Amino acid sequence: MDKVFISGNHCIAEAAIRAGCRCYFGYPITPQNELGEYMAENMRKSGGVFLQSESETAAINMVIGAASTGARVMTSSSSPGVSLKQEGLSFLAGFEFPAVIVNMMRGGPGLGNIAPAQGDYFQSTRGGGHGDYRTPVLAPASVQELADLTVKAFDLADKYRTPILLLGDGMMGQMKEPVVFPEPVSDFPEKPWALRGRGDGPSRYQASLILDGLAMERHNWKLVRKYKEMAEQETRFELYMMDDADFAVVAYGTTARIAKGAIKRARKDGLKVGLIRPITLYPFPDKILQKVAQQIKNFLVFEMSTGQMVEDVRLALANERAVIDFHGRPGGIIPTPIEFSRVIHRYYRRM
Amino acid sequence: MSKKDKVFTVKVRRDFCKGCGLCIEFCKKEVLAASPKLNRMGYNPAEAVNSAACIGCLMCTQMCPDLAIEVYSG
Amino acid sequence: MELINKWPEYHKKDVVSHYCPGCGHGIVHRIVAELLEEMDLGKKAYLVCPAGCAVLAYLYLDFDIIESAHGRGTAIATGAKRANPDLFVISYQGDGDLSAIGTAETIHSANRGENICVIFINNAVYGMTGGQMAPTSLLGQSTMTSPMGRNPEVDGYPLHITDVVAQFPGVAYAERVTVSSPAGVKKTKKAIRNAFLTQQEGLGYSIVEVLSPCPTNWKMDPVTACKWVDNEMTKEYKPGLLTDKREEKRKEKG
């Protein structure tokens, strides 16, 4: 397949359709409207379902309905809208239904603004809704990766029977880059649990109400085992210029791109800086951080927030003697590589 | 044989009845009455005290929320 | 001896429900099971049960069932029906679920004319949580959260949501019935049959509002509760056909 020059939001929609997503339910919110618009045009054309819902809450519950019948299904939104979806996310996790939820983060709290930000890291990685569950989170850093991880998200969702969050920001969604799309998926896993009418077999039900305490506890631990298995099998990260580095930047998504530019500049000045880029934010790639900490003692976490992922870095390195610094620009400010290279210089000198 | 001449038998599944009394209330022929003995759940279940009067109208089964009544013909 | 009231195939046998004595849910469950069998729809039936007393309906009904978050029944039903149009989709909801927390979902699924059936159990009170005031509670009705009686100055007025959605062009069939007397039960079955036929024909949204006794939370014995439905509730919520646009819909479809 040839390269296509396409925006992040359109790219996710196209990749989802290629991944066999048959249903999309969503509600307009900036900066991800182009995703739903692409679905409106192309999903129905290919015989799938596009429905603009009356609310974010309704959209995520339509996702539950479609997922319960075994369909590959997606919804997308941005920060305030994703807050409204948390009820449904908790139910999806409880039901163990596969679904892909896209969050193109914007500045907050409240309505905030529509500029790129990374303030929903906690909400994304800690569960977000009520109850004892987590949502696996994928954080792409290029439009090509948006395509690849969208397909991956559907596979992971089906494999582990869990909702998967694809976490980008306004910049990821609006940015255009060349992409080579994967071939359309035609081979889907069986879903014997899906509710498609009992037919001649026994009736089935899907319930998230588990009144018996011991049964509820068993269900909670079952979810944990699943997350642990995902941590073993599915943790992803990228190392950039880490071979000879003595100082590591930790950043994901948009900030990781900015960090790469800054690191190139710092390298020109002779600073041995590298980047650890978590691609799965939950499960968090703590093992690679611990491995790096055997050689490197100085870490600089860089986020477009007031400091959220930095807590996961501190947890990962709790038993290492590492110095963990943080640089953040919240509120929709996009730092430049020049700005961040100065920050690297400052912390590098202190080392 | 016309419906009039048919003989019906009403049986209440004692341990499925919650004693709400709706069948007793809506039976025009006073076939059913509350049993003085408690059932396993601690309710006074309905019981057929006059099956011979039953005309098979099924008002009782229509009103029973617990599918506890069986009506037989013959 | 031959059993006349044959056990409905799609109702589980030999389970005692958790419903209180004289609760209307059991009657409506039985009607749904009977109709699915009579109309041969049970094999592809998909029922959304609500947060509320009927949350455990899957313990009694013997076809595919999913539980919904409070108020989201028709959103889940929409997703399931759109994803899999062959399913026969029913959303079973109470008055708090459908006309308070799920008002938006109710209004918009109806307005889209989703090809689903909604069975709306109206007992003018929140049952499962212990008898709080519902949007459908009658004026003057004493509940746990309107202990002095529902006062319109602070609590507003009884909400007639079925009358509202019946106005929508997407709603092909809407009827209000009772299960407080044998005649009412008979009409309920007829109304739900019509609702099922509506979906079967692909004519769009259908809703049957069932005025149903809740003796426990009304603090009445079951017989008095039935009389209260007939004498008081029906004054506020008049039973009868609210809309039947099936003929128009058939013409539209051609």
Q: What's the quick description here?
A:
The complex is a heterotrimer of chains A (351), B (74) and C (254). Chain A is of the alpha/beta class and 351 residues long.
Supply database-style keywords.
heterotrimer; A: 351 residues; Rossmann fold; 2 domains; seven-stranded mixed β-sheet; five-stranded mixed β-sheet; 13 helices; 20% strand; globular; C: 254 residues; alpha/beta
Structure description:
The complex is a heterotrimer of chains A (351), B (74) and C (254). Chain A is built from 13 helices and 15 strands. Chain A is α/β, with parallel strands linked by helices. Chain A has two domains: 3-234, Rossmann fold (3-Layer(aba) Sandwich); 237-350, Rossmann fold (3-Layer(aba) Sandwich). In chain A, strand 14, helix 12 and strand 15 (323-328) form a beta-alpha-beta unit. In chain A, helix 1 crosses helix 2 (33-42), helix 1 (8-18) runs parallel beside helix 7 (143-160) and helix 11 (286-292) packs across helix 12 (309-316). The longest helix of chain A has 22 residues, at 213-234. Chain A is globular and about 70 Å long. The mean pLDDT of chain A is 97. Chain B has one domain (3-73): Alpha-Beta Plaits, CATH 3.30.70.20. Chain B is built from two helices and four strands, in the order E-H-E-E-H-E. Chain B has helices at 22-26, 59-63, and strands at residues 8-12, 32-34, 46-48, 69-73. Chain C has a single domain, classed as Rossmann fold (3-Layer(aba) Sandwich). Chain C has a seven-stranded mixed beta sheet, with helices on both faces. The mean pLDDT of chain C is 97. Chains in contact: A-C, B-C. The A-C interface holds A 22-23, 25, 49, 51, 53-55, 57-59, 61-71, 73, 87-88, 91, 95, 195-200, 203-209 and C 10, 42-46, 48, 51, 55-56, 58, 61-69, 72, 75-84, 86-88, 104-105, 107-108.
